């Protein structure tokens, strides 16, 4: 049997909004396997970011079970979750959050310099990752001297600096034009293929979602499909949910 790198069983998450409770997730079951590249789509407010936060140990479920790389993280303390995040997870968000005063190379090297038990020499690894993502000629550029797509690829390199087995990306192309979005998707494919990283990407872009191995569609806090061939169907459901 293939090994699930991420496993969720009946995960629920109730969020408090003032005096009422929003059921952001209502019983999510999923298994994501090593080296898969999985897309998560669904209407705004359907729980995509909430799910990614729980999978990444930024948040804990109200109920249900979540396992990362075979470890049950459901009832871990904040400190334990921080360790899991540092060892297992790389995050990429819509906004790149690079440090503006540092070069691309320095931005990528930084998390290795801060790691408790670094596995790489910071600048050697940073060069290797930037090279892998097609930025071999941009080491010394600062974020303001790079395009959006280039900045997001630097952010991906930074997320991979300490070799996490899992990369979670929440709308990483949401702030980019189509061409730049495509270069970011190619970068994610490269790290999956060459680095063996399992990639989970939330996206609104159907043409990017269609390039994933598998697409999960969330509607109202539940997964309503599981395979790529459901995508056309799923977008129909999404439209229905929006209307
Ligand atoms: N910090 C929060 N406090 C209260 N409710 C929240 C919070 N964050 C998100 N929500 C609500 O939870 C639901 C799911 O949100 P989210 O996971 O951000 O959806 P998506 O990423 O699919 O747009 C929405 O109804 C949203 O309004
Ligand atoms: Mg979101």
What do these coordinates show?
The protein has one domain (4-242): Rossmann fold (3-Layer(aba) Sandwich), CATH 3.40.50.300. It is built from eight helices and ten strands. The protein has helices spanning 48-55, 78-88, 104-114, 122-132, 148-159, 178-195, 206-209, 231-242, and strands at 4-17, 20-33, 37-41, 63-68, 71-72, 89-92, 166-170, 198-202, 214-219, 222-223. The strands form two sheets. Strands 6-7-8-3-9-10 form a six-stranded mixed sheet, sandwiched between helices. A four-stranded antiparallel sheet has the order 2-1-4-5, covered by helices on one side. Helix 6 (178-195) links the parallel strand 7 and strand 8 (198-202). Helix 5 runs parallel beside helix 6 (178-195). The chain is globular. The model is unreliable at 227-243 (pLDDT under 50). Adenosine-5'-diphosphate binds at residues 15, 17, 22, 24, 42, 44-50.
Short description:
By secondary structure, this protein is of the alpha/beta class. It is 36% helix and 26% strand. The termini are far apart.
Name the average pLDDT.
Answer: 91
Low-confidence stretches: 227-243
Over all CA atoms, what is the radius of gyration?
Answer: 18 Å
The CATH H-level superfamily is P-loop containing nucleotide triphosphate hydrolases
Helices and strands, in order, run as: EEEHEEHEHHHEHEHEEH
Beta-strand residue percentage: 25-35%
CATH class: Alpha Beta
Number of domains: 1
Count of alpha and pi helical runs: 8
């Amino acid at each position: 049997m293939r090994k699930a790198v991420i496993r969720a069983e009946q995960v629920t998450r109730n969020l408090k909004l003032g005096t009422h409770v929003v059921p952001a997730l209502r019983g999510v079951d999923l298994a994501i396997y090593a080296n898969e590249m999985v897309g998560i789509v669904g209407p705004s407010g359907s729980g995509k970011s909430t799910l990614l936060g729980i999978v990444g140990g930024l948040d804990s479920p109200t109920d249900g079970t979540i396992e990362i790389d075979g470890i049950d993280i459901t009832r871990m303390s904040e400190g334990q979750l921080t360790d899991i995040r540092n060892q297992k997870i790389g995050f990429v968000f819509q906004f790149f959050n690079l440090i503006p005063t540092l070069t691309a190379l320095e931005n990528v090297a930084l998390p290795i310099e801060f790691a408790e038990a670094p596995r790489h020499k910071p600048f050697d690894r940073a060069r290797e990752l930037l090279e892998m993502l097609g930025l071999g000629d941009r080491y010394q550029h600062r974020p303001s001297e790079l395009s959006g797509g280039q900045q997001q690829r630097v952010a991906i390199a930074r997320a991979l600096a300490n070799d996490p087995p899992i990369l979670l990306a929440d709308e990483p192309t949401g702030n980019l034009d189509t061409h730049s979005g495509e270069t970011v998707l190619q970068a994610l494919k490269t790290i999956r293929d060459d680095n063996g990283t399992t990639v989970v990407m939330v996206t609104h872009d159907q043409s990017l979602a269609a390039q994933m191995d598998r697409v999960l569609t969330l509607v109202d806090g539940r997964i309503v499909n599981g395979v790529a061939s459901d995508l056309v169907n799923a977008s129909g459901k999404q439209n229905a949910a929006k209307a």
